[in-house]
Amino acid sequence: MASVITCDAAVAWGPGELLVLEKVEVDPPMAMEIRVKIICTSLCRSDINQWENKAQSSLFPRIFGHEASGIVESVGEGVTEFDVGDHVLTVFIGECTACKHCLSGKSNMCQVLGLERRGVMHGDQKTRFSIKGKPVFHYCAVSSFSEYTVVHSGCAVKLDHDVPMDRICLLSCGAAAGLGAAWNVANISEGSSVVIYGLGTVAQGAKLRGASLVIGVDINPEKYEKAKAFGITEFINPSDCDEPIQQVIKRLTDGGADYSFECIGDTKMVSTALQSCCDAWGMTVTLGVPKGNPEVSAHYGMLLSGKTLKGSLFGGWKPKSDLPLLVAKYLNKDIEIDNLVTHDLPLKDINTAFELMKKGKCLRCVIHMPK
Ligand SMILES: [Zn+2]
Ligand SMILES: [Zn+2]
Known about the structure:
Elements (H helix, E strand, L loop, with lengths): L4 E7 L8 E7 L6 E11 L1 H8 L14 E9 L11 E4 L9 H5 L24 E3 L2 E3 L11 E5 L3 E4 L5 H4 L5 H12 L7 E5 L4 H7 L4 E5 L6 H6 L4 E3 L8 H8 L6 E4 L4 H10 L6 E4 L13 H5 L3 E4 L7 H13 L9 E6 L3 H9 L5 E5 L3
Parallel strand pairs: 10-11, 10-13, 11-12, 13-14, 14-15, 16-17
Antiparallel strand pairs: 1-2, 2-6, 3-4, 3-8, 3-17, 4-5, 5-9, 6-7
The structure holds zinc ion (2 copies).
């Protein structure tokens, strides 16, 4: 029987407050859970958005992080899929494989292990972390900014031992989400025009589908060179434009792009993205997690014209069913992940990673746990 582990974790004590390395107690895994020794975890914009979210101040102290690779340290009662020593990828939306949604073939929104917003584990609605008896909240039921964490066995995917742990963690969220938004949700067709607000792997997904024009919109020109490698063909910095960005896009695309993607989590930008795609069949896919106001406004006439607005969480991928295919594509070099990593930092420098991402200075920063 596993016992409590005391280890280092980067704890956020309040919204927007610098993270502090603390000794935390990590409970043994309960039934159907596994405890994982995290090896690498990458920082995602949604970690930042939720860390800054003052509306959730009751969910602190909290351990963020949801893109991670690690090794199973112990397994809870009833777990047959994993053994101690297995390499795993954690995922922020699980797949129970048995609920109505998992069986539908239409969605990856598992009804049992869906996006966890209360800072606790899905099962008993309690935390597995504490500091001197005080509970520490989880994030997305993953909380990977800790040397050890507990996840539901439905929120982990087994990896072969030869998969590089320091890069594959990106498939936990960011890299997979962008590819899935392009392939599963938008289903981009060959020769089409695409505009992407906030650069990321959507561009690679568009390129691999044969899009002819892929416009990246971002305020940071330093990202352009990296973005080009992923398939961005035109780069627009809104700060350099003296007319609304949607007008620029309309001019470049003869009336609007076939597809537009909002990857930032700015709901005003969703309206801009909708205005940037063409009447009739234009499709806007939104995959950013909203920072503040979650309301979206759009002129009804745009929808009457036939435009569609679709949301994409984890790119429509069902983790257990689909992630092994993406991992194989990565190993085959059919998809590129390594180039997305602009920084590698140890856990103790996690605040630097937050700062880099907040300032838009990095695409992905991988945090390495102490050996
Ligand atoms: Zn399910
Ligand atoms: Zn993420």
